[in-house]
Specification:
Strand 5 and strand 6 form a beta hairpin. It is globular, with a radius of gyration of 14 Å. It contains one helix and seven strands. The strands form two sheets. It has a four-stranded antiparallel β-sheet with strand order 5-6-4-7, with helices on one face. It has one domain. About 10% of the residues lie in helices and about 35% in strands.
C-alpha cells in the first residue's frame, strides 16, 4: 500500500485476506477506496478494491465502504445500520474488523454513523457500483 502515498500511485488489494488491510485506511484519511473489482456484475462479486490518494465524488450510482470493529454478528450490524437509515451488505471479515458496503454515497462526517456499532469505525471510500453491459 506504500505506492498509494505518492502522486499517481494506486494499489489494488484483494479482499480475500487474513489481514484486514482496509482498517488501516481509517488512520490514513487521504487514502480512499475508489473502485471495486471486477467492475462488471456478471464477473461475480467484488474480490479486490483499488486505493489511492484521491478524493472520491458521487457518481449517482455509488456504494460506500465502511469498516467497524464491532463484535456483533454481520446480520445484527446490518440491522442496526438499517435502523439509522443505511442499506448495508458485508463484504469482508478478518482480524476482528468487518468491511461493509453502504448503498449510495455516504460522507465520512455523516452524523448517523455515530450511532453505528463499533468503537473503531468509519468510511474508507466510495465507488461506482458494478454494472452490466
Amino acid at each position: 500500500m506504500s505506492a498509494t502515498r505518492s502522486a499517481g500511485g494506486v494499489a489494488v488489494l484483494a479482499l480475500a485476506s487474513d489481514v484486514p488491510w482496509w482498517g488501516r485506511l481509517l488512520l490514513e484519511p487521504k487514502l480512499n477506496v475508489f473502485a471495486s473489482l471486477p467492475c462488471l456484475r456478471r464477473w461475480g462479486p467484488a474480490t479486490a478494491l483499488a486505493v489511492a490518494q484521491i478524493e472520491v465524488e458521487p457518481s449517482g450510482r455509488d456504494e460506500t465502504f465502511w469498516v467497524t470493529d464491532s463484535a456483533k454478528t454481520a446480520p445484527d450490524i446490518i440491522e442496526e445500520l438499517g435502523r439509522i437509515g443505511f442499506a448495508a451488505e458485508m463484504l469482508a471479515n478478518a482480524g476482528g474488523l468487518k468491511l461493509f458496503t453502504l448503498a449510495g454515497f455516504v460522507q465520512r462526517e455523516d452524523e448517523r454513523l455515530v450511532e453505528a456499532p463499533g468503537e473503531l469505525k468509519g468510511v474508507i471510500g466510495a465507488a461506482s457500483m458494478p454494472f452490466d453491459v
